[in-house]
Amino acid sequence: MFDPQGPSLRELAVQALSSVEHGYDLLAPKFDHTPFRTPDAVLDAVERELRQLGPFDRGLDLCCGTGAGTEVLRAVCRQRVTGVDFSAGMLAQAAAAARADGLAEAEGVAEAAHPTVPVDLVRGDAFALPFAGSAFDLLVSFGAFGHFLPRERPALFAEAYRVLGPGGRFVFPIGAPPPIRSRAYWMLLGFDAVMKVRNAVWRPPFVMYYRGFGLAEVCAELTRTGFEVSLRELTDLGRRADGSPRARAVVATKPYRQGS
Question: In the CATH hierarchy, which fold is given to the domain comprising 39-177+214-253?
């Protein structure tokens, strides 16, 4: 699961016994060499959908980590891109990657699909984003929702709604649950069970669950927040045995209101 440049078992254990913030500070230098990073295939599939939904001007990557999603925004936004995360270590890695990308562009070796778009990296709380209302017309997030308990999602979605302008989109991928007879199903079930035991006996808690972010529940919560919700099949990621897509993009649109 980990390449040779990834964290050791001891490093992962230390991270798992830390808080979420401190754990990601520790993991940040090696995060991109772990399976926790969103795969490029998923990033590319979402980018293709965003190109069809755009154009966009100002994009926000919520819980940006080391900046993989920020690069997606740079490919589809015309004016400015912002990444926000509460881990200083992850933001430092994102900043280093952005500097390297800028240097490559200055030397003329960057891909044309990733134009020179200014990037701001901001340390902040997802429940109290440090931005004015209607600051963005696109918001994305990749791989972060397992760090939020179900009871916390209404506040999270309300902040996403607040910082989007009318007509703005909140877009993120969500995978189909693995079949109950698959090894993946039981691996995820076991992981979540271990995390629940860990959090029951150890402080500070480390919130990281894989099975609590169901499509129907999430769409209902987004609708209650005020979004208009639609789904787009990420067919590039393949289909399951029953013909359904392995993943979809949730597209939550902040509607135009009279007088807005």
Answer: Rossmann fold (3.40.50)
Q: Where are the domains of the chain?
A: 1-36, 39-177+214-253
> Checking phi first, is residue 125 left (phi over 0); if not, alpha (psi -120 to 50) or beta?
beta
Q: What is the pTM (predicted TM-score) of this model?
A: 0.88
Report how far apart the first and last C-alpha atoms of the chain are (Å, whole number): 49
pLDDT in tens, the chain (260 residues): 456 776 777 777 777 778 888 888 888 888 778 877 899 999 999 999 999 998 999 999 999 999 999 999 999 999 999 999 999 999 999 999 887 666 455 555 544 445 578 999 999 999 999 999 999 999 999 999 989 999 999 999 999 999 999 999 999 999 998 888 888 889 888 988 988 999 899 888 888 888 878 899 999 999 999 999 999 999 999 999 889 999 999 999 999 975 44
Within the chain, strands assigned E span 56-62, 77-85, 119-123, 136-140, 164-175, 228-233, 247-253
| Spatial separation of the C-alpha atoms in residues 92 and 123, rounded to whole Å | 10
